[in-house]
């Protein structure tokens, strides 16, 4: 060791701290008596007992206006590397009477906690968690979301877990403890694989399973589902992960004739269109044009960008390219680029407001 070195010996970590405040506190407590230290520990024990005897309120939120629906993106990314970049989180959907989380990936809990702290979400109001398929960018934060809903609940009834066949089978196996504390329903579309219900009602939302074509695991390409939401503010189709295939938009129209908002998992442009890039994966940029022509929604919100497509530059360029083609075709649909925390409000089957409340 050089005479000029200021490095501390390995193992002497007791006084290595992250900031001056922590260092000052450590010095104060180092000078405290054992009785004083035990008093601090006992105080924390008492606080823990009180917390479990009377659980604290986990957030607060202003009510959504009657006749409206509010959608918040719990992260804008998806896929493997978007998830590993920390951006895969799903959706928060609220109405005047109902609150659900859809596809809570590993970023969802952080977004929900931040929204709760800022007065935009209350775990006590969470009615249901919906999961489209058993991929980690869609389900990792299911249990924390259910824990929050169960712990904070002050009203009769139990939270609902609704998912596709694979999700419900695996959840029963890996977390029977939580399954015993919630109501559960398996959702499937008649064109898909698996046994379940095509529809479930949650408060003033009607949730329909829509078909997909997406590899959930070997031999399971038709088990994932999307969600068509019949809401007080308008119809919403959350595509989830799917290819665009013949019959998909017809199936959606049969369920939800009037679609106000499409939330499209259309991350890749795939400009040169080699077929292997599109095999049983996700929607591509050009697919948004086909979907828009078929459904004529008021808006399309693009979400679930993989890391290579996550820059603001790409997202705006993609939305601009699509908007030019829709305008040229005289289609009224507006394209919105997704971003974590983006919040939309639909009312009277139209977009009435959008903002990023945590910006």
TrEMBL record:
Keywords of the record: Hydrolase
Top-level taxon in the UniProt lineage: Bacteria
A Pfam family the protein falls into: Lactamase_B_2
Classification via Gene3D superfamilies: Ribonuclease Z/Hydroxyacylglutathione hydrolase-like (3.60.15.10)
InterPro entries: Metallo-B-lactamas, RibonucZ/Hydroxyglut_hydro, UPF0173_UPF0282_UlaG_hydrolase
Hydrolase recorded as keyword: yes
GO molecular function annotations of the record: hydrolase activity
Protein name: Phosphoribosyl 1,2-cyclic phosphodiesterase
Residues in Metallo-beta-lactamase domain copies: 100-305
């Amino acid at each position: 060791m050089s005479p000029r070195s200021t490095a501390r010996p390995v193992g002497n970590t007791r006084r290595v701290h992250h900031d001056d405040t922590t260092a000052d506190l450590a010095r104060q407590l180092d000078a405290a008596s054992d009785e004083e230290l035990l008093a601090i520990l006992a105080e924390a024990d008492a606080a823990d007992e009180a917390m479990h005897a009377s659980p604290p309120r986990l957030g607060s939120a202003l009510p959504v206006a009657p006749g409206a629906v509010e959608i918040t993106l719990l992260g804008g990314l998806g896929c493997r590397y978007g998830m590993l970049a920390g951006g895969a989180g799903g959706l928060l959907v609220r109405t005047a009477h109902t609150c659900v989380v859809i596809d809570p990936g590993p970023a969802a809990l952080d977004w929900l906690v931040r929204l709760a702290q800022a007065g935009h979400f209350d775990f006590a109001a969470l009615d249901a968690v919906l999961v489209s398929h058993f991929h980690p960018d869609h389900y990792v934060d299911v249990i924390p979301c259910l824990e929050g809903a169960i712990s904070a609940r002050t009203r009769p009834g139990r939270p609902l877990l609704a998912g596709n066949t694979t999700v419900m089978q695996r959840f029963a196996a890996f977390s029977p403890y939580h399954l015993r504390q919630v109501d559960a329903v398996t959702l499937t579309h008649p064109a898909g694989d698996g046994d379940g219900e095509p529809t479930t009602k949650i408060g003033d939302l009607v949730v329909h399973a829509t078909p997909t074509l997406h590899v959930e695991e070997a031999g399971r390409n038709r088990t994932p589902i999307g969600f068509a939401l019949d809401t007080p503010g308008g119809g919403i189709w959350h595509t989830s992960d799917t290819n665009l295939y013949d019959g998909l938009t017809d199936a959606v129209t049969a369920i939800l004739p009037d679609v106000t908002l499409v939330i499209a998992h259309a991350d890749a442009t795939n400009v040169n269109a080699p077929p292997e890039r599109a095999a049983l994966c996700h929607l591509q940029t050009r697919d948004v044009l086909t979907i828009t022509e078929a459904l004529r929604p008021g808006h399309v919100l693009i979400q679930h960008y993989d890391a290579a497509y996550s820059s603001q530059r790409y997202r705006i360029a993609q939305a601009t390219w699509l908007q030019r083609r829709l305008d040229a075709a005289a289609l009224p649909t507006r394209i919105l680029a997704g971003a974590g925390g983006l919040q939309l409000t639909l009312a009277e089957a139209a977009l009435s407001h959008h903002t990023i409340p945590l910006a």
